[in-house]
Structure prediction request, 36 residues.
Amino acid sequence: MLGQYMNGLFKISPYIRRMDIQIKKLIIEKMEKLGI
Prediction:
């Protein structure tokens, strides 16, 4: 669900898409800390 929301943002804004990799890294790090 979060992934679909984020993909929607990237499609809407090419500028945000450039930060795609950084955002995904942050999400993965937070998920690992939470143990998901």
